[in-house]
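Support request, please re-run this one:
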Amino acid sequence: MPTISKEIFAEKLDKLMYFFLLIFSLTFYIDIPINFIVIVFALGLIKYILIRPKIKLETHHIFFVGFFLLGILVSLLFSSGGQPLAIALNAYKSLYIAPLAGLFLVFFFHVNRHRIIVLLSCVAFSLSINAIIAVLQFFYGIKIDRVIGLFSNVMLLSATHLLILPILLVIVVYAKNVPRFLKYFYSAVILINIPFVMLAGTRIVWIGLSICSVLIFVWGIKNKLKLVPIGLGILLIIFITVYFNPALKARFDSIDNISTNVNTGYQSNRERILMWRAAWQMFEDYPVFGVGLDNFYKQYKDNYKVPTAREVQWHAHNTVLNTMAQSGIVGTIGLLSLFVYLYHDVIRAWKRDKNVITVAYFFSLLGYTINLMTDVLFSGHSVKLPTYIFWLITGIYLSLNHYIKISNK
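Re-run finished. Output below.
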């Protein structure tokens, strides 16, 4: 009976990993109980055990990730928030350790530009199909307020838009060696998703994509006269979308409104501010180690919620304040150090190389950071998938920029 060499078997595992990543890129927005990134990571571990490649890191990213994880762990050990240590450690694993599968799978998976373009195109196709479904939902009167298509929830939707759409726009504007049809496809995806982004009604996404788009166009288009028709076309699409939805117009007008609605006694911006104040108060009361990992909800509900607040959320809707509240200064220093280094590295790489991979990662990181200020959390309570996607994008950036060098000999 013929035997298969370990190298051939490892190559087949690599193709299987690619297959599962393709499935993930086509289904990530659907609420299915299968985490394909974890499956790919597990297959990668098997591949690593078989061929034992040499992995060389020419970056300090892993050091800062470890420093961040250590800070959260230390704060957890000294302040579990009254819950059993085993439960706190399980939350730590779920929130912070598991999503790193997205980063570390590129240590075992053969990353090249062709595969990444195919995966990105599948994600773009998925976003387009979902956008079309969402627009049809609106016109047929299905959930008119905030349509999200097939996405499992609006927070996953908003994080995905701010992670992926800037990458597509950078390729359209900056990339020179990408086939023209691919640029046309990505341009169509962006245009299709503009009304969808508006109808979804997440204001931080409007702000984040506006900031990223303006910077991408200003820095990427040398002939600034080209910005005029592009800007007018985008504004026209936005105007038409808002014109057909009075509720959307009211939401747009509420971006800078922090007062309470006299009819309902509710205003989401006001609720955010109350949660931020409560998070800051928790930090002042427990400055070193915080109130305990994943313990914001209980503390807010029982001790820090003011009578005028209408919402009781599981987190503070701000990553820095939420980390300060739950993990104190010990955990927050690690978080801030990590993101400072991410920006320091990508800006330095942009100045040095000026390649489209670096520019795309910078704007994906910027969009995600903006989203972390008011919406999803980095390592969120119930919406963890954006963290997996962010780490996967980071891993791809490191691999394509040769920060990670793998040799099978």
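The first strand starts at residue 54 and ends at 57. Residues 172 and 180 are 9 Å apart (CA to CA).
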